[in-house]
Amino acid sequence: MSLAWEPLTLDDTEALADLLAAIEAEDRIGEVHDLDDVREQLGHRLIDLAAGTLAAREGGEIVAYGYLPVRQSATDTHVMRLSGGVHPGHRGRGLGRRIIDWSLAVAPELSEKAFPGVPLEIHLYVPDTNLGLKALAERAGFAANRWFAHMGRPLSGELPDFTPPAGVSVTSWSPELDEGARHVRNEAFLDHWGSVPHTPESWQDYIVGSRNFLPESSFVALHEGRAVGVLITHTFEGYNEQAGVRRAWIQIIGTLREWRGKGVASALIAHALAAFRTQGFDTTALGVDADNPTGAVSVYARSGFEIFERSSNYALAVKPD
Description:
Elements: E1 4-6, H1 13-27, H2 35-43, H3 49-52, E2 53-58, E3 61-67, E4 78-86, H4 95-114, E5 120-127, H5 131-139, E6 143-154, E7 168-172, H6 178-188, H7 200-208, E8 219-223, E9 226-234, H8 237-243, E10 247-255, H9 264-278, E11 283-289, H10 296-302, E12 306-318
Parallel strand pairs: 4-5, 10-11
Antiparallel strand pairs: 1-2, 2-3, 3-4, 5-12, 6-11, 6-12, 7-8, 8-9, 9-10
Helix pairs in contact: 1-2
């Protein structure tokens, strides 16, 4: 049966979820998405389904897809992160390369519409265990330019105990503290590679408005009523169900630059870990840039986190025709 190549639509939730489940069953990288996760992904305001997605259909099934959103903001470069995948039973037929070629063709117009005149790069996230995707990216001209790790720890046994600096308190996230939390995140990540500021809309869509957001497991460090640190937590019920554990995923942790090195991040982590255990979570995890300039890897290691997965970022600069 020949394949039909068409954009994704909001009606593709179940078919795309089935494809993602088949990919995870083969690749085992911990990317588990339930129907609500996929529905949320298809509904994000930063994705133009008609122009920024592509699906290969065979009968009623989706056997490959590409997903290319614009970013909420851009600095000196607009980075568009391509995600996608091919059903294990359909690999080796050139479907992955077709998705990459499609992204290279449509990205310039999407980028120029969002950020006129700003240089464009397309990025691919490649787990170190996915040698096929690594080879595909390199054949298409992408080059690895940054390295990342996932770190985690159980919530059993002894937990770290870090006291906040004098005058700093740690409190649960609340709507009243939300704008301060967003400000801390944006300021803290100004010098982080690949990061761009969250707009109020993207913060709502992807962070505190996401179905995965846990307000009771997210915390803000305050000094004289001003937010100086933030820790935002999500959980993914599809992963929890499949893994048979409850995992609290630390989505964001950041400290204002003038407060770095004073123990704010360590105090936030210690507070969060104790709360996670009380709330019934079994494990916690986070992602980290291996070259993070703040020394985040060592901060997390001191709190008992260990690396369990490594990945590379592949990038390709794209010039308009």
